[in-house]
Structures are given as structure tokens and as C-alpha cells.
Amino acid sequence: MKVSFEVVPRTEEATQEQIDFINKALPQVNTINIPDLLRLPIRSWEGNRFIDRSKFDFIPHIRAIDFNRPEKRLQKLIHAYELDKVLIVSGDPPPDMSHRVYDTDVIDLIRDIRNDFPDIDIYCGFDPYRSSVKQEKEYIFKKFDAGCDYVLSQPFFDLRLLEVYSDFLPPEKTFWGVSPVVTEKSQAYWERMNHVVFPESFDCSYQWNIDFTTQVLKHCAKTGSHVYFMPIRIDLERYFGPVSKVMSDIIV
Q1: Tally: H helices and E strands in the chain
Q2: What's phi and psi for 86, nearest 5 deg?
Q3: Which residue range is the domain that position 82 belongs to?
Q4: CB of 198 within 8 A of CB of 158?
Q5: What is the largest CA-CA distance in the chain?
Q6: pLDDT of residue 97
Q7: pLDDT at residue number 252
Q8: 70 exposure class (CB count in 10 Å sphere: 0-12, 13-18, 19+)
């Protein structure tokens, strides 16, 4: 099982603290994702200087709308930073319109990178709350057809919905997203911005989130799929202490 941890590069110090926590408390983590957030000082590909790539798979997130395909700037970054993995997403509009964006489609950029780098691992995202299951399934398989190797989901909060997607996604190519929600404010954000429908059983306790994560981890172990942790403003030790014990029990 691959276990990925998303490290948000808010500052150099905060980035290093998260890496140190992983090294100390989460020996099961073998993959680190770095998102590309324009409001932050560190671009995703620059995160490679914090990560021991002999120990972790390093996956920088790439915003397709930041790249003009004819310029091949992404290809140049792949060479310059010796990237062997990239996650290609559409990208949200920039907060500052002085940041130039392009009408670059994810599918087209996947094809470009696959053609120019036959051996690179290409990851893509999917969102179970963005549209209907049918529409999201079609979009996922267009990405696979274009050259995507793995898909990573936005967080799930309901195992029943996860199992619906599990019926058609190849387990060895799928990372199931988990993001603990431990405040009502955070829950309201997910409902408003990402259209998440939380199950009736949900509550914002650490215990609910730990129990749900345990269910996801058992699903991954049973099916041969992978997990993608996205911890956002939580007490890392309080959440990952019990979760690490679960992973130690089920990961062979």
C-alpha cells in the first residue's frame, strides 16, 4: 500500500516541521505530495529540496492553466528539477490577476507530458462531489486514456460513496483521499465550497475521523488500493497517533 501525505508549503519552517513529523511519527508514509498554491512562497516543484527522494516518492502538483503548451515550460521544469512524478490538475483561478494563466486543458497537457516523457509517472485528481458519478467516471477514464497512471481523490467522508467509485476504479491505480474535519467551521467550508454531503453519522470529533480513516485503511488493505492524507489545521499527534497504530496493524 502506498501512503501519501500532503505537505502544504506555507513557509520553509512549516514545511520542514511537517517533514520532521512524518519522519518521526509516520514510518508508513512513502509518498509526499506538495500542492501548488499561488498565495504561498514555495512552488510545488521547489519542495524537492525538503524531501529525501531516496526515502519518499515526491509528487509536485502542477496547475495546467499556468502553462502555455507551445512554450514547453513544464517540460523544462521536469528536466531542471529531475522530476519522475507529477500530478496534473486544472488549477483554480489566481487570486491576483497579474498572474498569467492559459486556456490549457488537463487532458492535452497529460498527452504532452506522456509523449515527451514516456517513463514519468503521471497522477491526476478526481472529485466525487464535483458532478454526477457517471460524469466523473467518464472524466477519469479520459485521463487514463491520455496517459495518466494514477488518480488521487479529493477527500471522501462517506464509505458508501467510496465503495461506489471502488466498483469501477482500478485499485492499484487509486489513492483514496482522507482529510479529517474537526470543527464546524471546517465542515461548513467543505459543504459550501466543495458541495460535500456529510453522512448523518458524521460529527466533528477526532474519534469519528479516526474511525472513518480506519475504515478507509481497511478498504485499501483489502482491495490493494492506496491512501492520500490531507491534514488541514489539525493536531497531527492527536489524529495520527491512533491512525499510525492502525496502519502498523494492517499494512504488511
Answers
A1: 8, 8
A2: -145, 150
A3: 3-250
A4: yes
A5: 50
A6: 74
A7: 62
A8: exposed
HSE-CB for 202 with a 13 A CA cutoff: 20
Q: What's the CATH number where 121 sits? A: 3.20.20.220
- Report residue 250 as a C-alpha cell: 494492517
The number of domains in the chain is: 1
Select from 101, 132, 111 the least CA-distant residue to 36: 101
14: Cβ–Cβ under 8 A, 6 or more apart, which residues?
8
Q: Which of 94, 97, 100 is nearest to 39 (CA)?
A: 94
Distance, C-alpha 22 to centroid of its chain: 16
Average pLDDT value over all residues in the chain = 96
Share of the chain above pLDDT 70, in %: 100
pTM: 0.96
Phi, psi angle pair for 178, to nearest 5°:
-135, 130
Contacts 24+ apart (CB under 8 A), 131-135: 133/164, 133/165
| Mean pLDDT per 10-residue section of the chain, whose length is 252 residues | 97 96 97 95 95 97 97 98 97 81 96 98 96 96 98 97 98 98 96 94 97 98 98 96 96 72
- Angstrom distance (rounded) from CA 164 to CA 99: 39
Contacts of 224 (CB under 8 A, 6+ apart): 1, 171, 172
Reported residue count of the chain is 252
